[in-house]
Design goal:
By secondary structure, this protein is an alpha/beta fold. Helix content is about 40%, strand content about 15%. It is globular, with a radius of gyration of 20 Å.
Length: about 350
């Protein structure tokens, strides 16, 4: 049953959601990005600025509608953008009219107040490092990428237990193989091939490990994946207030850098160091653009029948052919009962 705004706003420990979003089809944003890439002599391939990282196929539509359907207890949904507004309000008004006022657009200028020298930024890692600075954000909040959707009902205690975030992931040993590969490729290209500007592909694993090392967590690290991420605003605020140089260092790159750590990993390891033992296994479906069509279909079937899977990440949908895109979106329409509601 849909909860009213009054009931949600009166909850003793409200839960908010933060979504980062960009419309890469916006020519103004594309021109601004190209301008700074030229100024910093960066290429799309070595700066995390490939077009697919900014492409929008209206995934945020499914992200928001899925939260309203499957997590109706969420108080506010904050969408962090760079001077843009996603075209989602008409549909929210159509399907969830009582929730329109709970969706708020947050510009980069707001969360970078006092750090304006780092704007504009085209770096998702940098932006994620600042989302805790949203004014009015609940202490308990959940971070979503716009390509992550809920596919089943979720309860507040699946995100927070005893007012502490639930940590979904697994312990891993340091990514030695990926580190070796990273440094070997870097050395070969820069030293032997003479490509002085070469930057190896950034590793999701290594940048999480960086966060663990920063906090002195050894020899393992806690690895997270592409799921909704429960976070504590006060914990991040306390850490970065005490360590302003760490924050400044992590947001100083306009484009993604191998020197950066992932703030979600930092938050998870801060939780662990403060005795948070709310560990839970990963419960996601992952639709990768380089999976075969057959494998994608099998994944969708698995997500449909496996009741332990609560969220799905459909990464870089723009790289899929039109038929496969339609297959994914048609499935999400069924999951959200959108076509039934339109009858």
């Amino acid at each position: 049953m849909m909860q009213t705004d009054t009931k949600i706003n009166s909850a003793p420990n409200p839960i908010d959601v933060v979504i980062t979003w960009v419309d890469g089809n916006d020519p103004v944003l594309a021109e601004k990005r190209n301008q700074y890439m030229a100024l910093e002599q960066r290429s799309a391939s070595n700066s995390g600025a490939l077009a697919t990282r900014f492409a929008s196929n209206n995934e945020i539509r499914y992200c928001i509608l899925s939260i309203l359907k499957f997590a109706p207890f969420v108080r506010n949904i904050f969408i962090v953008t760079d001077g843009q507004t996603p075209d989602i309000f008409d549909e929210v008004k159509k399907y969830y009219p009582e929730r329109v006022s709970s969706i708020r657009i947050i510009d980069h200028k707001e969360i970078f107040s006092g750090y304006e020298e780092f704007l504009p930024t085209f770096n998702s890692t940098t932006i994620e490092s600042m989302i805790w600075r949203i004014e009015g954000l609940a202490d308990n909040f959940v971070y979503f990428n716009d390509d992550v959707f809920l596919v089943r009902d979720i309860e507040p205690n699946e995100w927070f237990v005893n007012n502490r975030p639930v940590l979904r992931g697994k312990w891993l040993l340091p990514p030695f193989r990926k580190l070796f590969d990273y440094h070997a490729r870097n050395w070969i290209n820069r030293t032997i091939l003479g490509n002085k500007g070469y930057q190896p592909k950034l590793s999701f694993y290594i940048r999480q490990w960086h966060a663990a090392r920063l906090l002195g967590v050894k020899p393992r690290y806690f690895f997270h994946c592409h799921t909704p991420h429960p976070l504590s605003k006060s914990l991040l605020e306390s850490y970065f207030t005490k360590n302003p140089d760490v924050l400044s260092g992590n947001i100083s790159s306009r484009f993604r850098s191998h020197k950066q750590f992932i703030v979600i990993s930092l938050a998870n390891h801060l939780e662990i160091l403060s005795s948070n033992a709310n560990f839970a296994p990963l419960n996601l479906g992952y639709l990768h653009p380089y999976y075969s069509r057959r494998r994608l279909k099998k994944r969708i079937v698995q997500c449909s029948i496996d009741t332990t899977i609560k969220s799905v990440c459909a990464q870089s949908i723009d790289l899929l052919d039109q038929e496969v895109q339609s297959m994914i979106f048609d499935w999400m329409d069924r999951v959200l009962d959108l076509k039934t509601k339109d009858l």
